[in-house]
Amino acid sequence: MIEIKNVSKSYGKVKALDNVSLNIDRGEIIGLFGENGAGKTTLIKSILNFISYKGEILLDGERITRKNIGKLSFATSEHSFFPDLDGNAHREFYKEHFETFRERRFDGLAEFFKLPLNKPIKKLSNGQQNQFEVILALSQGADFILMDEPFSGSDMLNREDFYKVLMGIIEENETVFLSTHLIEEVSGFISRAVLIKEGQIVGNISIDKLEQQGITLTDYIKENYHYEEDRVSKALENMLEGDRNNE
């Protein structure tokens, strides 16, 4: 389990996280939702211990250090692979550095997505690089797989294929924590939704509970974000009124 206890993070006068508390259990597929600047990336970077923060984050009851960080893997659209190395070299690197590396999963996913493993990763298309980033995260053998908008720029069909494959390969003890704006696309395979707004958790609910209440994930997010259905018409009306006043 990952335990996030009263975590806060500020960048100058801007508070990116404000007293966030959250538990991430094994065996879950959690969607992390929020508008740009809500704190999604900062929360994930805090869990990975990439940045300093106030509060406490524990992994199976211990602070996250070099000794246990191998239980976490990370995929991001900003990419964390070695661009000059090819896929085969990455396989060897991961085999050497991670005892839990899942070589069969790596090869199977690379074959499924038809990725050429003999080309430097920097020569692959942006969509292929995103796929390779995710493949590495899924194959590392981590207990908790953190993803921060991993499919930015990827086409819809490849994203749909990934979701289907993910559902088929994730085992009971593996956890996926996925930050994304693609609400409708992921609503069918996540088990829990966590909403963050202005650095605070404003929603945390299982998909089963939403279904029991007859509420869609999109409506739940709009409700907790206090979304104004007429905000577009109001904005257009104000702009048109301004144009008429200037005539």
What is the SS-derived class?
Answer: alpha/beta
Integer-rounded radius of gyration: 20 Å
Quaternary state of the chains: single chain
User: For the largest beta sheet, what order do the strands appear in spatially?
Assistant: 6-7-8-3-9-10
Question: Please, how many domains?
Answer: 1
What is the mean predicted local confidence, pLDDT?
87
Q: β content, as a range?
A: 25-35%
End-to-end span in angstroms? Answer: 62 Å
Task: Give the overall shape.
Answer: globular
Would you list the SSEs in sequence order as H and E?
EEEHEEEHHHEHEHEEHHH
Tell me the number of strands: 10
Low-confidence stretches: none
Q: Could you describe the 3D structure shown?
A:
The chain is of the alpha/beta class and 247 residues long. Helix content is 37%, strand content 25%. The strands form 2 sheets. Strands 6-7-8-3-9-10 form a 6-stranded mixed beta sheet, sandwiched between helices. The longest helix is centred in the C-terminal third of the chain and has 16 residues, at 231-246. The mean pLDDT is 87.
